[in-house]
Structure formats: structure tokens, C-alpha cells
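Hi all, posting the design record for the shared folder.

TITLE: backbone redesign
STEP: 1 of 1
STRUCTURE INPUT:
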């Protein structure tokens, strides 16, 4: 028995692709909301991680190489930004 690929359900985000050129208003609006959504998800994850790490005591922070006042910047901007300072 073969499966018809058109009958396989896919997420709605995969099915919707705005048509038109790169300068199409629909395409620009789609890109804007796509980027805003990705930024919101990234910010949510960063804040979740900050809440989690804020519960660590000084000993645990030192074990992972951070001081109590540096973990927010390390989580938000990454370890490279911390070492450049």
C-alpha cells in the first residue's frame, strides 16, 4: 500500500507560504510576524533560564564559572560577551 503524500497532514505554518515577489506587502508582513514570533520565543526562553539560574546559590554559580551579578548577562548575551569585558 502506498501513501499519497498530499494526504499527509502538515503544520499550518508549512502550508502557508505567501506568494509574490520579495517586495510583496504580504511577504513583508509575513516576515515581520515571523521575526516577532521568533524574538518573543527567544526572550521567553532567556527569562525562563534567568529565573531558573537565579535560584542557584553562590557555590553552584562558581561551579559553572559565574559570579552572582554576572549570570544575567551571560545568559542573555552568551559566554563570549562575558569574556570580552
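Okay, here is what came back for every position:
SEQUENCE:
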Amino acid at each position: 500500500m502506498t501513501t499519497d503524500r498530499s494526504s499527509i497532514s502538515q503544520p499550518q505554518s508549512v502550508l502557508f507560504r505567501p506568494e509574490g515577489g520579495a517586495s510583496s506587502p504580504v511577504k513583508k508582513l509575513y516576515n515581520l510576524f515571523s521575526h516577532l514570533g521568533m524574538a518573543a520565543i527567544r526572550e521567553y526562553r532567556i527569562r525562563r533560564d534567568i529565573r531558573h539560574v537565579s535560584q542557584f546559590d553562590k557555590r553552584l554559580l562558581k561551579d559553572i564559572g559565574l559570579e552572582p551579578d554576572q549570570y544575567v548577562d551571560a545568559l542573555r548575551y552568551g559566554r563570549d560577551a562575558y569574556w570580552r569585558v
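COMMENT: The radius of gyration is 21 Å.
Let me know if anyone wants the other runs.
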